[in-house]
Structure prediction request, 187 residues.
Amino acid sequence: KTKMKMNLNYKSGHSLFLLGIGIFTILQHLNSGAGILLLCLASIGFLWWLSVQDNATKTINAYFAYAAIFIVFMIQFCYICRYAVNTVYWYLIKNIILIIVLKLLSKHLKGKIGEGDFDAAYIIILCVGFEGFIYTFMIACSLAVFKYIPLIITDFKSLKKISVPFIPYMYIGYLVVLLLWKEMIAI
Prediction:
């Protein structure tokens, strides 16, 4: 195994921009309550770091991703146990099924979509639900196509050779969903 080295100076302006819009989004949720604010802080922080990793190296640290999933899951679980105890079983069953489906998809689509993209997707689904993830995914795909449209037009054949870091696009889509649809947060 090789140790993953990451140069944070790589596209640091891009990373700082992503951090800035993340902080702006968090500031918009200051009056939303402690549970929602904690969920926003954790999810935005983790997704920002995964975006930086994905953008710099086109890989993410799996241990960090699993720790992020666990922490976001536990924030929601504690909130549900405190305020809606009758939904705990449904919450656990739904998330077990979801993680199994996402892991099966990641194994089936290996080489086409990175496993880290599915980990980031799970964090987003935990926070804004499946409907919010669909909006996030549509925004992310639109942004990625918009960025790569010159390449699509000029050199379509080389498009299959390109590896696109998709987590930054999902991160931006997630922030847009949090800003536009505050009621979408799944707490």
The CA atoms of residues 168 and 186 lie 22 Å apart. The longest helix spans residues 115-154. Residues 1-10 have pLDDT under 50 and may be disordered. The two ends are 39 Å apart (CA to CA).
